[in-house]
Design goal:
Blueprint: H1 3-7, H2 41-52, H3 54-67, H4 71-87, H5 91-103, H6 110-127, H7 130-147, H8 150-166, H9 170-183, H10 188-200, H11 204-217, H12 222-234, H13 238-251, H14 256-268
Helix pairs in contact: 2-3, 2-4, 3-4, 4-5, 5-6, 6-7, 6-8, 7-8, 8-9, 8-10, 9-10, 10-11, 10-12, 11-12, 12-13, 13-14
Length: 277
């Protein structure tokens, strides 16, 4: 099983916004996993244990690391412990371990080094260490380029953009998202995040084009519906905003996204035709 696939459910951070113009940049990871890599049996068993019983997996990984006689063993033990730590929210230590595992991976295995660096960067993002995350993701980007893995490189650029936004570097984040769109043009998250950032930077025309592309790629997605409505209302298209948010209520009733959409609709109040009733 790919380590990237194992981590994807753990790395999403979504928070409801307070008011329309301040809807947050969604922190969504691509749902598409990197190609599956073959893992030694010991590592696979340890990773499986980490998903089910992380405390036990940490003990197993520490014993494995203590007796490791090769770089491959050290990398495997550190990967396993890092994954187990993500299950108990030990994000900072997990990030450091993923990066150590990357260092223990041969330089000619650039694709695996890219994955480990990306997972380290993701863990550091969740821990709140954005500068450390960006440094890790820069390493991962170089490894992905060396491996000529455009798909993984695009996902890494999305994560770099997240860190850059958190650091207040919006122009650099926009450039990273442009590269992500070029590398993986069918990644809906790249277009959604681009639209959100463009909107926050006051570029509503660009935001509209980008959110339309995201909706084409993923027609029924609550986060895309939320953002489409925010862009519409800020552009003075109140009816379009209502339709977008109502589509979220229909597509994901009872979800956090639906609650946010209802809050937006409540802020708008009744449609003009009903306001005098």
């Amino acid at each position: 099983m790919s380590l990237s696939l194992l981590l994807l459910p753990l790395l999403a951070q979504v928070g409801p916004s307070g008011a329309l113009p301040q809807a947050p940049l969604p922190d969504r990871h691509s749902r598409k996993a990197a190609p599956v890599i073959q893992q030694p049996a010991r590592l696979k068993d340890c990773l499986d244990l980490a998903m089910l019983r992380p405390a036990d997996a940490i003990e197993v990984a520490e014993v494995w690391l203590a007796e490791a006689k090769s770089m491959a063993d050290r990398a495997g033990a550190r990967q396993c412990k890092a994954l187990a730590l993500t299950r108990i929210e030990g994000w900072a230590e997990a990030g450091a371990l993923f990066l150590s595992a990357r260092e223990d991976t041969p330089a000619n295995e650039s694709g695996e080094r890219a994955r480990l660096g990306a997972m380290g960067g993701n863990a550091l993002i969740v821990s709140g260490d954005m500068a450390g995350a960006l440094a890790a993701l820069d390493l991962a980007r170089a490894d992905a380029n060396a491996a000529r893995d455009a798909k993984l490189g695009g996902v890494i650029q999305i994560d770099r953009a997240r860190a850059l936004v958190a650091l207040g570097r919006n122009d650099d984040a926009a450039a990273a998202l442009k590269e992500a769109r070029d590398m993986v043009p069918t990644n809906a998250s790249a277009w959604l995040l681009s639209a959100t950032l463009s909107r926050r930077m006051g570029k509503l025309g660009e935001a509209q084009v980008q959110i339309e592309r995201a909706a084409e790629l993923m027609p029924i997605d609550p986060e895309i519906g939320l953002e489409a409505g925010v862009i519409a209302v800020l552009s003075g298209r109140e009816e379009a905003a209502r339709k977008s948010w109502q589509s979220v209520l229909k597509a994901a009733p009872g979800s956090p996204a639906a609650k946010t959409a209802q809050g937006y609709l409540d802020q708008l109040g009744p449609p003009p035709a009903q306001s005098g009733r």
